Nucleoside diphosphate kinase
Amino acid sequence: MATERTLSIIKPDAVAKNVIGEIYSRFEKAGLSIVAARMVHLSQQQAEGFYAEHKARPFFGDLVSFMTSGPVMIQVLEGENAVVTHRDLMGATNPADAAPGTIRADFAQSIDENAVHGSDSAESAAREIAYFFTEDQLCARTR
Ligand SMILES: Nc1ncnc2c1ncn2[C@@H]1O[C@H](COP(=O)(O)OP(=O)(O)OP(=O)(O)O)[C@@H](O)[C@H]1O
């Protein structure tokens, strides 16, 4: 499996809990390197654009309100099998279903406020990374 990249967002609930460092530590222990990062308080337009695929879903309005309720920490992670490795670290979308020891089991309270986002495929990752970062903001860490 080749090195790949994925987009990670630490959502407003987890930023407010002051657990960015604990979550970064889990990425590093799993072999994922941070190759770009920035903290942003998303505008409504940015959040709606990011979640455009969910526009028709009943929870879309609440999702956008939540994602704009406070700052988020956005990072690009790089490593072997990064998309799946990161999804495994996050756990199930609904924290009630998330396996013990996953980020959502440990830090999320509900399906609406579920601590983290991670790209679900290499194709989504490419689109989501380009949504927040230019190519020259990504620092290759491959040794
Ligand atoms: N049934 C639902 N009720 C409320 N919010 C939901 C529901 N399903 C999904 N969401 C919210 O929308 C986000 C995107 O949904 P999606 O199905 O893409 O989940 P995911 O891929 O596990 O999460 P993410 O895209 O944030 O990594 C979820 O993380 C969650 O915050």
